[in-house]
Every structure is written in structure tokens, then in C-alpha cells.
Amino acid sequence: MSLEIREVSCKSDLRHFIFLPEKIHKNHKNWVHPLYIDEWIFFNKKKNKSFALCDTILALAWENERPVGRIMGIINHRYNNTHIEQNARFCFLDCNEDIAIARSLLKYIEDWAGKKGMTKLVGPLAFSDKDPQGILTEGFEEPVLIAMNYNFPWMKDYLEQTGFEKEVDLVSYKVKIPERIPEYIQKVYDRIITSNGYILHEFTSRKSLKPWIVPIFRLINETYNHIYGFIPLTEQEMHEMASRYLPVLNPRFIKIISNPENEVIAFVISMPELSEGIRKAKGRILLFGWYFILSESKKTKLLTMLLGAIKESQRGKGLDSILGMKILESAHQTGMKVMDSHLILEYNTRMRSEYERIGGTINRRFRVFGKIL
Q1: DSSP 243-278
Q2: 212 Cβ neighbours under 8 A, 6+ residues apart
Q3: Is the pTM of this model over 0.85?
Q4: How far apart are CA 61 and CA 18, in angstroms?
Q5: CA 119 → CA 75, 80, 88, distances in Å?
């Protein structure tokens, strides 16, 4: 069998690249299709401005002219310059169960990165930490959530056998939503909000939420600099992400705290988990696809946390407890039973402690790998 790695060079190749995973995972019960309308935007260099800030390459593995694997390589110059690194990234690695395919795809990106002067390859990691990252290493029995990678267990072995080692782990927590909010949190809420003149903002419409989206991203830029893989967003990227995500967010599950000057000092964003609806729609929204997704948003009992931040000068005052309490209240009111923390860096002890304090237990672990070139 002849195996060849070729760069994606035309729309037909890109179609193979986007739709190949659903063939590889055809009989994989826990895998969820991506939303293909988003995939076409993400991989469009004219619509995804991140391409203009990075060197990139997409490649397919062909076996007897049949696609059997894929990979993307990225060099994010903004991140490298900020962190004084010469790292390339790989992401969207997927292939049939054959280590020769995985090894060839990774070697292709290693060679590409080496020719561009890079000294290390890390991944799975895409343009930023907001894209799916890491290889799933524990929790294969858990349902797949939005913006999470999902792979076969053997992918970890393939990476280790090709010379990759652990860079960092990320974990997610499962939390049963309590029937009653702990009394101490209500006391914290009363004391902090009243004594500081803070304002808690809750929403019932996307129109009322929209003016706050860019200020939220500005706070993310200010507070996420220490997070592995994070790259500050430009104003243009903030507006693009607002346009992309606002239509799918449920305003009820977004909470913001501002100071008396109406400056965002803390926020949390969560959403009812839609992955089962996306699975039924097979990633397509035309015809009946939207019906499955919207139907799932109304009946799901799982709430997924997506983003949150607190201004550094306001930390340690209990704002995280206030936001958590308000999210739990909304979850309880809508019949949610379980909350998932999404991905948390293993060394983020503050956030992990918050989930453990309300009874959260680790249900998944993801790993970002690295290899010296």
C-alpha cells in the first residue's frame, strides 16, 4: 500500500480534509460531528483572520488515492514573539488506526516547521486556546462536548511512540447541580455586592447582551496572559467572535458583574450542551438539522461552562462564588441536573478548588504534547 502526504491545495482537497473525520469515526459511538457551516468558515483564509497572523499548512495522507489521515500545522508569530519561543503547533490530527499514517503526518509537519526555523512542535493546539486542544487521555466513556477534541485511545500511544512528551494536562469536572444553593454563598453575595456598589447583570435577550461582548473579550485579554497557548485578541477578532458566537448563546446563562463605573470586572459564560443534537443532525443545519439542535437545547440536562474571568484587582473577594451561585440558580430553574466545567489547566488550582468545593469530580483529562525538533 503506497502512503503519500500531500498539502491541501484546492477546494476539493479541503472538502476531503473537513469531512474525513466523520468517515474515520463512522462507528465511534461517542464522537460528535463538527458544525460544518463553522468548519467552512474556520478554514477559509478570507473569513478567518487568524490565517493572516500565522504561517499555516494543511495536509492529507493518501493511500492508493484514498484519504486516510489529516493534520494542520501552525506557526503563531504573535504568540512566539510574546513568549520568546520558536514553537510550531499541530492540530486536527486524525487518521485510521495505523501508526505509520500518524507518524508520516507528524513528520510532514515537523519538516515544514524545521524549514521555517522552529525548534519545537506542540499540540494538539490550534490558533488559540479557544479552539479545541489536547488529546483525550481519560474519560472516553463521557459524552463529547462542544469545542472539545475526541479521539480513539490509541492516539496517545501513537504520539508517545513518535517521540512526543507531555507539555501540560487539562481536566474537566462534572458537578451535580444542587437542589439548594449553599447558604454561605448567599451571604457572600449580599456582603460583596452591597458593600462595593457592584452591579450584577443578567440577561433575557441577545440584544441586551450584545453591547457587553467586546468588553468581555477585553477582560479576557487582560486576565488570560498566563494561560498556556493564549493569544490576545485584536479588536477585529473580538467583533468577529461576537458575531460568530452570539447567535448560539443563551443569554440566561451569562452573568456579568460591573463596578459603579459600568466597567466589566467579572463574568461567566455557560450554555446548555448541544452536542447530542449536533450528533443527530450529523453536523448539518439545513433541512432538519436546526430542529435537532434547537430541540436538544430545550431538553438537555447538561450545562457546559465555557469562559470566565475576574479582573486581577478584584480577585479574592468572592466574585467567583457569586457568579457560580447565579449560574446554578439559572440551571436549577431550567431543570438542569449536571454541570461540566469544560477544560481547566491542571495547575489552575484556584478554579479547580472552586469546583471541588461544590462537589465536582474530574471526569476527563486532555494532554498537550511537545517534541524538540
Answers
A1: HHHGGG--GGGEEEEE-TT--EEEEEEEEE--HHHH
A2: 201, 256, 264, 267
A3: yes
A4: 13
A5: 11, 11, 8
Q: Specify the length of the chain in residues.
A: 373
Pairing between β-strand 264-272 and β-strand 120-123 as defined by DSSP bridges: unpaired
How far apart CA 92 and CA 21 sit, in angstroms, is 9
What domains are defined for the chain? 3-170 (3.40.630.30), 178-336 (3.40.630.30)
Is residue 184 exposed (0-12), middle (13-18) or buried (19+ Cβ within 10 Å)? exposed
Chain CA centroid to CA 21, Å: 18
- The span from the CA of 328 to the CA of 63, in Å, is 50
Proportion of the chain above pLDDT 90, given as a percent: 44
Per-residue pLDDT, 185: 64
For residues 280-315, one letter each, b for 16 or more C-beta atoms within 10 angstroms of the residue's C-beta and e for the rest, the string is: bbebebeeebeebbebbeeebebbbbbbbbbbeebe
- pLDDT tens, position by position, 93-102: 999 999 999 9
| Mean pLDDT, residues 192-220 taken together | 85
Distances, alpha carbon 11 to alpha carbons 44, 75, 285, in Å: 10, 22, 21
The per-residue pLDDT for range 86-142, each reduced to its tens digit, is: 999 999 999 999 999 999 999 999 999 999 999 999 999 999 877 889 999 999 988
Q: What angle do CA 339, 342, 346 make, to 5 degrees?
A: 120
Which of residues 190 and 113 earns the better pLDDT score? 113
Closest CA to 118 of 76, 159, 153: 76
Greatest mean pLDDT among 124-128, 146-150, 240-244: 124-128
Q: How far apart are CA 298 and CA 302, in angstroms?
A: 11
The strand pairing partners of 67, in sequence order, are 62
Looking up cell 463529547, which residue turns up? Answer: 144
Identity of the residue numbered 244: R
Amino acid at 351: M
